[in-house]
Design brief:
Elements (H helix, E strand, L loop, with lengths): L1 H12 L4 H12 L8 H10 L4 H30 L5 H24 L4 H10 L4 H36 L1 H20 L3
Helix pairs in contact: 1-3, 2-4, 3-4, 3-7, 4-6, 4-7, 5-6, 5-7, 5-8, 7-8
Length: 188
């Protein structure tokens, strides 16, 4: 069974619609779809290494476009329910997101935290849209670039490495990046 799935994915990843399929999955995953685009990105690069850079760019851009839709869904959600709930009780959440939203967006774009939750939450909290897009581009782009490069460079071994070291790749590295930025920029 796994062998037939493997062959199916191999054939689909080398056909002319593979980039379109990756675009769709990256877009809808950023709004509601539960399966990350990595599931398409990895075999696409593995079976056709010439598509490495194109696939990473494609996946990043469509993920961010989907994130922008998620952002506006969150913004619309806020406007729709603000009359129902006491906003003073949500003040703590809004203050937290104002203070730590940059970190939340970066981590959410890179880590296994579903990006769609970060996108919708950012809109709901009315976080600066331009900062949201820039941080999304940085975090999603780095995520897909690292994954893509490992698969491109190391093939089957790279895929096994990604599966085995998810925590290092998707949690430790982004926290390390935030820590380095924090130390370089300084703190109060």
């Amino acid at each position: 069974m796994w062998n037939s799935i493997y062959i199916y994915i191999e054939k689909k990843s080398t056909n002319r619609y593979s980039q379109f399929f990756l675009s769709i999955v990256a877009f809808i995953e950023s709004i509601f779809f539960p399966i990350p685009p990595d599931v398409i990105l990895i075999p696409l690069i593995h079976f056709d290494k010439k598509k490495f850079f194109r696939s990473v760019i494609n996946c990043t851009l469509f993920s961010i476009l989907g994130g922008a839709v998620g952002y506006f869904l969150g913004l619309f959600l806020f406007d729709s329910i603000k009359g129902i709930f006491d906003l003073s009780k949500q003040e703590l959440f809004f203050n937290f997101y104002d203070q730590y939203g940059l970190i939340a967006i970066f981590l959410g774009g890179f880590t296994p935290i579903p990006y769609k939750i970060i996108a919708i939450t950012s809109g709901y909290a009315k976080f600066n849209f331009i900062f949201f897009l820039l941080l999304s581009f940085l975090s999603r782009g780095l995520r897909f670039l690292i994954i893509g490069y490992i698969v491109y460079q190391f093939g089957d071994y790279g895929i096994r490495f990604i599966k085995k070291n998810k925590t290092i790749l998707f949690l430790i590295i982004p926290i390390f990046i935030i820590l380095v930025i924090y130390l370089l920029i300084g703190h109060d």
